[in-house]
Each structure stands twice: as structure tokens, then as C-alpha cells.
Automatic annotation (TrEMBL):
This is Phytoene desaturase. GO terms for biological process: carotenoid biosynthetic process. Residues 491-505 have a biased composition (Low complexity). It holds the Pfam family Amino_oxidase. One of its GO terms (molecular function) is oxidoreductase activity. The gene is crtI. It comes from Mycobacterium yunnanensis. Keywords: Carotenoid biosynthesis, Oxidoreductase. It comes from the Bacteria. Coiled coil: none annotated. Belongs to the carotenoid/retinoid oxidoreductase family.
Amino acid sequence: MSHVIVVGAGLGGLAAAARLAAAGHRTSVYESADTVGGKLGVLERDGFVFDTGPSLLTVPAVLESLFADTGGPGGLTPTAVDPASAYRFADGTELSMPHDAAAVPAALDEAFGPGAGESWRQLHERSRRLWDLVAEPVLRQPISLAALAAMSLRPADLRTVAPWLTIDGLGRRMLPDARMRMWLNRYATYSGSDPRRTPAVLAVTSFVEQEFGAWYVAGGLRRIVDAVAARCAELGVEIHTGAEVAAVTTAGGRATGVRVGGREVPADAVVCNADAAVLYDRLLPRDRTRAMRRSLRGTSRSMAGFVLLLGLSGRDPAPAHRVFFPRDYDAEFDAIFGRRPRPVPDPTVYVHAPDDPALRPDDDSEGWFVLVNAPAHDPARGVDWDAPGLRERYAARVLDVLADRGADVRPRVRFTETITPADLERRTGAPGGAIYGTASHGPRAALRRPANRSPIPGLYLVGGSAHPGGGIPLVLMSAEIVATLIGAPGTSAEPSAAARAATGPARRRRSRST
């Protein structure tokens, strides 16, 4: 029986551990924090419970396939979020985006006028072709130059991928309404990126959310981590928390284990769920990682986030997921990715306020997760989020912005907890609190993201900083790729039946119990 060590117990690390253990490997996980989950965190205060990471699940079939492949249902039953999101624009226009893609054109026509729904339909059908092109050969497999080159040789495929276009450029080409372009550009932030520099291929994210729907797990999305950790325990995975890995050990040109707690633990393979920059800059001999460190230095760090967790008196009947756009969206990305990064003066504000009795102390209260995009913590060259008073000033600014946009909760606040990019760095180990590692900027963004198979034999990467990217579905896909690369018995290069159902050809599917 081979021994695999997983560094980090985020969702990607736990999912990889479950797959490897189910396939017969003895698997150990070492996590520096006192609990598992990574960015899928939770905070409890005064009877309120907050998810501190993702708030929506898309493509639930990918989660279903993880449990199906490792022993059966995980006890989770995602429920549809309808509307998936409600948007408010600076001119007062409101758009309630339905969960069901069939209802979207009518909603757009109502919000923006006749013709808006048809322009969305054309974009959606284009994205359907794109999804069918990239879902299996690109997202569910290791980075493949051959697969990408094959697309470039087929004129129709090349026109669909359109590597010369950005998301912003695609919107200007296909969406005549500026508000719709703002809606589309927001999907670049799902990878922590600037839509003016993000390849148009990543506009497929909007298709995924509308085609496969937006879902929630009662009790909060943190329950996904709990269920995967429970599956790991059932499979005999050893999970060590409060155990920071100091180094990945190497000998004879390959990974041989890890150094943790002052001792070396041998392994036949190592899977790293830590940020790729941490792996290549801190955990490996520097003479073995020059090329990767040089490659990572040539990429932009993804944006981070500034979070307010609000315990509120009273209840607001508004949709659970709301987005409040600024008048000047470009100014937001200039502030984050410009030469002199700064907190965004007039940011887009995202609010997650689930109507979930398990998350509040009584029926006359509710908890809000409030997120704004922010530059990463970088005291030397950018924003020092630990600077005295900055946390408090910016929290007050975000509440003022919400009030200006018609959602004044200041009289209802029982308490406020803040999470800055500096806090994210300390909690998750992500450098600067950059949520997605590197930003997806430039036409070769897919090739610049660290591969799941490292240049060092026996060492693999999983999680949001590696291929295929961040977000629950992609992180779970990365775990499946890694299990395949390691050669787990019973795992092949072909995705499972549940996985094939999840990713294409694209047809709308409803969730069932996982």
C-alpha cells in the first residue's frame, strides 16, 4: 500500500484525500490551522453563524460525483436559490436573475427593455458551444497543450474561444446595454481578475451559473467541508490539524515526504493544497524551483476581499444574494490592479443573507455576509491592511455605500466582524489574501496557472491556485485530476459517469441528494 501525504485540508486537499483513500492509498493530511476547511470557513458569534467563504454552489453534480466515487451519498441535499442573484445598478435599475435559465430572457426584457433577453440568449448559446469545447478536454484534464492546439486548428472552435477577446470586449461586441456588460464583467471577479484583461473564454462562468443553476446547502456551505471530512474519516484518512508543514522533502530528484513538527514523514507521493506560490517559494529547495518562481512572478496576483459579517436585528425580505453596482465599474479595477493599489472608494458590494434558521439566534434577526473586492495585502508595494484604523474606516465606508444604494442597515447592527486581506492571508495561507492565487490575465491565462503535476516527480498540486482554478466545482475537478495522475487503482483518465453528467454536453440538470 502506497502512502500519500496531502499538505493542507482545504476542500481540494480533503477531496483528493478521499479519492486516494477510496482507491486504496494510505493517506495522511497535515493542516497548519486548528480546523479543516481552508477558505470554506465559518465564524460563530452570539448565536449567529456565518460562512466566510463561497456562498453559492454551482454544478452540484461534481460534488455528487465525489461522494459517488468514494462510497455513496454524503448526506447533503442542495436546494435551488431563486432568484440566483438580484442586481441593483447605479441608475436604480433592478434585475432579479431567475434560477431557471428559461426564464432569464423575460427577466432581462423587463429590467432593461425589449431585446435585452435576445442578446443574452445569443451570448448563452455561444457560451454553450464554448462549454462543450472546454469542459472535458480543458477543465477535467491536466493542462494540455495538445487539446488547446487542436482548438486553434479548427476555425469554428477558434472563433468560439476567441483568444484575442477579453470578457469586457465580448460584452461590448454582444451586449448593447451597458448594464448588461457590467453584469457580464462581474464574472471575471469569480477568478479574482480584471474583465478588461481576462480572456473571453472565462465568460463561460456566467453560462455555468445560469445553465446548471445556483444552489445552497441548508446550514451553510461549510457543511460541504464537514461532509467531505467525514468521508475521509470513514475511509481511514489521518487528518492532523495544528500541524504546519515546514518543507516538502526531496531526494534523487523526486518528492519523498514532508518535514512537520521537527520530523520527516516519508511518502510515495505528496499532494500540495497550499497556495502554489507558498509551495514553490517556501516549501521546496530554491534551486529546484527557479523556473516556477520566475513564472509566478510574471503573473498578476488575484484580487482579495474585504468582508463584513453583520449580526442584525430584524429581517429583510429581499433575495438572499444581492449585488449593488457602482456608477464606474472600471474605477474599481483601476484601484485594485493599478500601479498604486488602494481600497476601492466606491466598490461593488455583494451581500449574502440566507433565510436559514440554523444560522441565526432567533426569528427577529439575520446575519449578512458583505463582500467587496479589494487589493491584496502588500505593505511594501501596495495596501497595508494592518495599518492602524484602516479596517474600521473602510468598514464604515462600506456601510455608507450600502446606505447610499438603498440598503441602510446601520440602525440594525448588533455587531460587526471584519475580515481583511491580511486576515485572509493569516487564516488561509494565501499570500496577500489573494483568494484565487494568480489572476487570469492575458490570452495564455490557462497555461500560466500552475499545473497539477509539478516539475518534481511525485509532487502534485490541488486547489484554487492550481489548474483548473478557484471555486467549489473547479477545486473538486482538480482533486479528481490529481487522483488520476497519481494512478489510484480504479481511477482512469476518463471521468466518472456522474462527472460526465456534470460537464457536458451542456444540458440543464436538477440536484439530488449527495
